[in-house]
Amino acid sequence: MLGLLGFSLIGFQGLSKHLMESSSIDLYFTDGTTPAQVKAIEAKLRQEPWIKTTKYITPEDGLKEMGNKYDEEILSFAENIALPLSLELYPKSDYANIQFIDRESKHLRTLANVEDVIYQRNWVENMTANVQRLQWVFAASTLIALLVAIALIQSATRLSIFANRFLIKSMQLVGATNTFIVKPYVMNFVRYSLVAIPIAMGLLLTVFYGLPFVFQDFAIINDFTKHIAFNQLLIICISVSIFGLILASFGSWLSTRRYLRTKIENLY
Which of 18, 122, 212, 213 makes a 20 to 30 Å CA pair with 220? Predict the structure, then answer.
């Protein structure tokens, strides 16, 4: 459960980062501006820390892009006018918020030969709001999943140790130390965890990487997994494994200690 949530959370973060960085700020230059002047401005802007990449658009490139977006009637009209040279700026996701873009757009309009600066303001606003809203949803989901996982593991360990409550109490009555009594049960649940970990990891990898190739209806999962780096995948697997071991050890220790403190007449 926690592995599924971890995969979804990191995949969503990568997807939202990709979407935020795919929104460009378009600079349109005045008539008479030469490609060399645009290239010089592009080289200067690339040194800005908030810019991830830039793209120089010639009039020919502009016509090709319009051909992919609009019908032939609009395209034939565009061919009769001179399209200006333009430059697309793609900001880094950390800077892709409307306040920063508004401030930088005012600065970009002051550059030499820049006639206009256009960007999708409504798209950036909506994307920023949706990302913040979904982050809260994922945070709440993580907390709920954590509590459910703890409750399930605690219930399993208590049920298993409940069957041995008389044996635990008998060992205590004959003089066995608490450590001697608790250790076998803790180690037993640690072994269960070591067996369950590769099974859980295999199921996670099957769900996120196997299903999209077998069933086309699950191809949307690729939108998440393609934004998960190998080191992030490794961190998820290791974190879930460590959490499972700790929770199994702590749950079995806590449940066993409970029966050690229970009076004999309360065991029935």
Answer: 122
